[in-house]
Specification:
Structural class of chain A: mainly alpha
Number of helices of chain A: 14
CATH architecture of the largest domain in chain B: 3-Layer(aba) Sandwich
Radius of gyration of chain B: 24 Å
Oligomer: heterodimer
Distance between the termini of chain B: 68 Å
CATH architecture of the largest domain in chain A: Orthogonal Bundle
Number of domains of chain B: 2
Protein name (chain A): Phosphate transport system permease protein PstA
Keywords (chain A): Cell membrane, Membrane, Phosphate transport, Transmembrane, Transmembrane helix, Transport
Low-confidence stretches of chain B: 33-41
CATH superfamily of the largest domain in chain A: MetI-like
CATH class of the largest domain in chain B: Alpha Beta
Pfam family, one (chain A): BPD_transp_1
Transmembrane segments (chain A): 25-44, 50-69, 81-104, 150-176, 188-211, 223-245, 277-298, 351-373
Largest interface: A-B, 49 and 50 residues
Subcellular location (chain A): Cell membrane
Largest sheet of chain B: 11 strands, mixed
Helix content of chain A: over 70%
Number of strands of chain A: 0
Amino acid sequence: MSNTTVKPEQGSKLSLRAGKLPKGATWMVAIGSIIVAIVLGMLMTGGFNIPLIALLAGVLNFIVLYAWSRTVEGKRKATDRVATTLVTSSFVIALIPLISLLWMTLVRGGPVILESPTVLSRTMEGMKGIYDQDYVAGEGELLGGFYHSIIGTVLITLAACIISIPIGVFTAIYLVEYAGRNTLGKAITFLVDVMTGIPSIVAGLFAFALFGTFLTLVDPGGIGSAKMGISAAVALSVLMVPIVVRNTEEILRLVPMDLREATYALGVPKWKTIVRIVLPTAISGILSGITIAIARVIGETAPIMVTAGFARNLNWDLFGGWMSTLPTFIYDSQMRPTSPGVAAAASSDRAWAAALVLIVLVMVLNLIARLLAKYLAPKGAR
Amino acid sequence: MKLTRFAPAAAVAAVGALTLSACGGGSATGESQENTGGEEQQQEELSGTLTGIGASSQKAAMDAWIADFGSVQPNVQVQYSPDGSGAGREQFLAGNAQFAGSDAALDEEELETAKDVCGPDGAFEYPVYISPIAVAFNLEGVDSVNMSPELIAKVFKGEVTTWNDQAIADENPDVELPDTPITPVHRSDESGTTENFVDYLSQAAGDVWDAEVSGDWPSDYGGEASQGTDGVVQTVSDTDGAIGYADASAVGELGTVAVGVGEEYVEYSPEAAAAVVDASEVAEGRGEGDLAFDLARDTTESGTYPIVLVSYHLVCSTYGDQNTVDMVKAWQNFVISEEGQQSAAESAGSAPISEDLRGQITEIIDMIQVAE
């Protein structure tokens, strides 16, 4: 500050009259580097090597942009541009697996569903390898399907939601509205944190052991029948509850204290404040929290294998018999095809189609949650 | 007011539920799986559920058996969880399953445990699934090569490195062998196929093959590693001069090795694979109804193919009630029947068991009864 040797006019000259890169320079450099990278990559390997080209393009982009900006705009702007590019490329890198996954599933599963839409409405009951061999040899249609797995996924997830949403939301309400900083609240928060870290297979074993123990009390040989939809639902709710609690708690804490105080001032009891003011205000956040929790558990494979087995037939009964869900169906088809060897491609086709259906199912759930959030939100917040 | 807010959500849920329940068929073919009314179905109709846990090697055959059993006894539901042989034996001995599939017979300790679960006669076990393992190679212009067990061991050990090596040429005087280098391909994952193949090598070529027998490939011996049966077949198909081992049903168009047995060389075939089980001795010191074979992989008997994977079914000697006994009998009789074995052969590429073995197993199944 006290240093007077810096002449003010020099500073103003730097900031106002320094050169500027033309508008859209970032894009020009990016596209230019990609083209150069493609040419270079093809010269180096003689083929179209995407990872190498991407790496080359990224490095080129950095060097060219920094050098150009440094010479025209000066050091500060150049650093700024580099930081911007870093952030953007991180975003692109994070997108790569997502897009590649969606693309793969669409390309492998899409044609299967379009060509043999019956996979959506048939089960694996009565399915055997010889049908798959006919299909792969081009002599028959693709038989079998995963209707039973779609039903299983929906039923088990629904049951898991019915169990865990009330527990999760009420726990969160207790933590935010009632517990304050008391010991019980801290204990619950700690336990919820611990629960978040439970590996999913442990949840599955827990649910199986729980039902096994109870059923053995009723019938000594009954442990075998502990494999059923409801034990899978319990296993999933063990995984869901902590997520629902965490998300709901965060959202409820965001509801302004003023709103609560305003209702208290009008003489509204606490429970009514929570039901009519706090929850509606937070509803859209709570619903997205629940959707995240559902999306997290709907793709679980390990706990379902332990608790619900591998069913081949359609089973609507959550309380008796094995059930199949889409993830276990995919796993089973891919790892142990109906017909090993060349005709395993048929099982693989069904698995990809099931993967696509699972992704679409999660997207539809997300969409429903968005719509619900929109319609249930209080008028002012729309 | 409240109603209008919830109405769209309810409508969406209702439409979703209707769509889901409206479009469902019940079976793989879209036709209902009623009793097709064949003349031979004189058996009484049973109903109930049978649960099996065990070897994943049997999965494809099990799919075929369950599918076809559905037309014999439409009201008996058979479910099978391919958790692995070890898990299958464990769960079966804990009484969680009515039958188990296992790539290995019960050991002494397990036989004792079986008496607690299955009654004084313990468990019955017998082979139901015989799968030949082919040694397949990819060499332009050559469809079949003769190899003695010692030679196979040397090739997979990396001691014989080119196809025109003198050792190979000596056994194949009529085949013109190129000087392509040999690339041995093995499974990278733990598998029953590896275990049976390595067991064969150590029994039939013990002088050359000194590695321990396990489901993992001995890491000292090098070679190319591939994931799963399909991976091995793929790698062999893609590499000129490669040789690998895989379920015979999976090798497709690749050339296969005729394996040296005694004085002759045997190509794999279902009959030859089933024959090796008949040439083997039943393990001694086991109870009645226990057909655990000591596979004679070093047999010199003519017409046997010794590289096979044999998988067993384990059932109890007694069950709690008549219905379960009837269901287990019907199910197991179907599995070993000519029809059942043929169906598995078509779908899973296994080798049907011989008539002789079927006779022995039928006697064992007849001994299953209600616990006193």
